[in-house]
Structures are given as structure tokens and as C-alpha cells.
Design goal:
spermidine biosynthesis, TIM Barrel, binds pyridoxal-5'-phosphate, Lyase, Ornithine Decarboxylase, Chain A, domain 1, 11 helices, 374 residues, alpha/beta, eight-stranded mixed β-sheet
Length: 374
């Protein structure tokens, strides 16, 4: 089908852009020997897992459902980390995952023996207590009192006997200089233990596919750690895999006037782009400007009853009218995986834009998808 025929609202993943990102990531893996995993938390569009699996080493998960999806749909290396596992799920996790990462020595003592019994590689998440970001406090695992990872103070070298890997995840949308600084702190604190490991996982938050990212600095970091400690380095980016590789196509339903104009769309910030409210940020919109930049400024908002369901203020070359289509950019990551049916909002369809310009619908949703969760 043609782009104009897509039903709205609809997420559309751009295959040529996705492939562009995957080529960049595969280049890093090929040149350094590191392994790169898809962090499914950011992007779980499993119809594309066979394609992603052609470029990456496998998946990482935050729990049983993601682990099962990765095993069923990609079927390559399957890692898992969770702040706390459930006893009734742990046997299934051991069946699905090659690498199992624990958040504390208490979890290691509780579940480690079962994982080792099944021949799984066991790791520990550490918290180097070194923040390299201020912008996104809710995405900072090194914030004071963080529950994510073992601090040096709580580290138990006496329990490391069967631990093969260390894992850290402290970055969010950052360049490689922040990784470099983090590694220096980690080596200072945990260096003696790194020598005893088989692998080190650098987590996610590496904005590798962003224009201007310093890939050569990242590769230097990977080589340094691999050579100094004789370990396998893993990266598990989420964002970088589908960064700027998808759209959310929406239609203007109505214009409300109250001082300023507000266009009510058939998509909702609260339901379909929750990071816009959570982070918060103003998503890029095709053929638009900053408020006041072009001749017609308009607020874009969702059709829910939440007063704050506002996407942002934009300007256009013409007055918006009901029936018109708008295209939000960079809507592949942290969108589909986070959407919800609050207020009975319909979930956006899921489609791909093929390299030849054709669109293909993967999935559409309706009333049953709202009802089944209640
Ligand atoms: C969220 C997360 C990732 C992926 O982070 P991005 O910012 O999407 O690259 C990787 N590892 C862990 C443990 C995470 O929590």
C-alpha cells in the first residue's frame, strides 16, 4: 500500500533507516570483536527480529516475557537482567537465557546455584555511583539511593566464585566520552574483580547511531577493556538500534480555539508517546517549525480527557484543517513498547516502510485489545 493509504494513527518503521543503524552497529562489532545485543525494552517489534538478528548477536531482556520473545523470535544469544527475579519464573528463565545477571548478592545467593546447574553464565550488575548526566534524573541509575546495581560498599568478593561477568548500565542518550569517564571510575573501584571475569557488559545508553557520535572513542574503550582484562565486551543499546527509524502518522480531527489554536489529533501523548510527558520532550514533526517561526502556530494535543495530553506547540506554513495528516519523527523507540489504552484510546497500527517505498501493515488494533486488559 502507499504511504497515503495507511490507516491512522500508525507507527511506521522505516526499513532503510533501521538498516542504516544496524550497519553502523555491526561495524563496531566487526572492528572490535565486541558483541551487541538488542535491549528489547526500547524496541520489541518482533516481526523485524529476523532482520535485526542478521546484524546483532542477540537480545537482552528485563524479565521472562521479553526473554521468551527474544528466544522465540530471534533465537540467538539471550541475556537477562532484572532487579529481582520471581521464584516461579526462574526455571523458565534458566531454560531461555544464556547469560543471567543479578542485581545483588542476595539474588545471586538465592538463584545463582540453579543458573549454574543449568550451565548458564552468571553475572552481577554493579553501580559505580558515578552520574554523567543531569538532564534526565528519572533515567539515572546512579542517582542517590538507586536500587540498580551493587555498590562497592556492598560488594562481596567472597561470593564471586561462580560469577563470570560484570554488568553496568549508567548512560542515557550519551556519547562515548561519558563511557570513557565511567570506565575509569569502574576500573579504579572494580578493576581487581574485572580480571577474574569472562565478560563485561557496558549496558545501554550509547547513542552510537546519532550523527556526530564518537565511534572511534567507543571502539578505543572496548579494545582497552578487552585487552587489559582478557574479557568479552558486550553492549546492549536499545535506542541506538531504531533511533530516528520510525514515524507516527496521525490525522487532525478538529481545531479548538481558546486564545491559541489547538489541533486535536487521533493520537495521544499520554497513550502513544508517553516519553513526551515523562521525559519530557517535544517530538520532531515533519514540515513544521518552532512556535512563531512559520506563519501559523498551533498546539497539538490528544483526544483524551487528560488536560495535560499535549504534544507540543508547532508552527506551519498554512492553517491546519481537519482531515490533514501529520508525521511525528523518531517514533520507533520507547513508543510501541510503552503505549496503553487509557481512556479507551485505540492502539496505533504497526507498519513498515519498505526500501522500495511501499508500506505494509503488520498489525492493527481495535476494541478487543482495549477490553482484554480489563
Ligand atoms: C534500558 C536499558 C538498556 C537500553 O538502554 P538505551 O538507553 O535504550 O540504549 C540496556 N540495558 C539495561 C540494563 C537497561 O535498563
Amino acid at each position: 500500500m502507499r504511504w497515503e493509504q495507511l490507516p491512522t494513527p500508525c507507527y511506521v518503521v522505516d526499513i532503510s533507516r533501521l538498516k542504516g543503524n544496524l550497519e553502523i552497529l555491526k561495524g563496531v562489532a566487526d572492528r572490535t570483536g565486541c558483541e551487541i545485543l538488542l535491549a528489547q525494552k526500547a524496541f520489541s517489534m518482533y516481526s523485524l527480529y529476523p532482520l535485526i538478528g542478521e546484524y546483532l548477536s542477540g537480545c537482552t531482556s528485563s524479565g521472562l516475557c521479553e526473554a521468551r520473545l527474544g528466544a522465540e523470535e530471534m533465537g540467538k544469544e539471550n541475556h537477562i537482567y532484572s532487579p529481582a527475579y520471581r521464584a516461579e519464573e526462574f526455571p523458565a528463565i534458566c531454560g531461555l537465557c544464556s547469560h543471567i545477571i543479578f542485581n545483588s548478592f542476595a539474588q545471586l545467593e538465592k538463584y545463582g546455584p540453579a543458573a549454574i546447574e543449568r550451565g548458564r553464565s552468571v553475572g552481577l550488575r554493579i553501580n559505580p555511583q558515578y552520574s554523567t548526566q543531569e538532564a534526565h534524573a528519572i533515567y539515572d541509575p546512579c542517582a542517590t539511593g538507586s536500587r540498580l546495581g551493587v555498590t562497592l560498599e556492598n560488594f562481596r568478593p567472597d561470593l564471586l566464585e561462580n560469577v563470570e561477568g560484570l554488568h553496568f548500565h549508567t548512560l542515557c542518550e550519551q556519547d562515548a566520552y561519558d563511557l570513557d569517564a565511567t570506565l575509569e571510575v569502574i576500573e579504579e573501584a572494580f578493576g581487581p574483580y574485572m580480571e577474574r571475569m569472562k565478560w563485561i557488559n557496558f549496558g545501554g545508553g550509547h547513542h552510537i547511531t546519532r550523527p556526530g557520535y564518537h565511534i572511534e572513542v567507543l571502539e578505543k574503550c572496548i579494545r582497552r577493556i578487552q585487552n587489559r582484562y582478557q574479557v568479552q565486551v558486550y553492549l546492549e543499546p536499545g535506542e541506538a538500534i531504531a533511533l530516528d527509524a520510525g514515524y507516527l502518522v496521525t490525522e487532525v480531527l478538529e481545531i479548538v480555539k481558546n486564545g491559541t489554536d489547538t489541533a486535536i489529533l487521533d493520537t495521544s501523548a499520554a497513550c502513544h508517546m508517553p516519553d513526551v510527558l515523562e521525559m519530557p520532550y517535544r517530538p520532531p514533526l515533519r514540515e513544521s517549525g518552532e512556535p512563531g517561526e512559520k506563519s501559523y502556530t498551533c498546539r497539538l494535543a490528544g483526544p483524551t480527557c487528560l488536560a495535560g495530553d499535549i504534544i507540543g506547540d508547532y508552527s506551519f506554513d498554512h492553517r491546519l484543517a481537519p482531515g490533514e495528516r501529520l508525521v511525528f519523527e523518531d517514533m520507533a523507540i520507547y513508543s510501541m513498547v510503552k503505549n496503553n489504552t487509557f481512556n479507551g484510546m485505540r492502539l496505533p497500527g504497526i507498519a513498515v516502510l519498505e526500501e522500495d517505498g511501499e508500506c505494509r501493515i503488520i498489525k492493527e488494533f481495535g476494541y478487543e485489545d482495549f477490553k482484554m486488559r480489563l
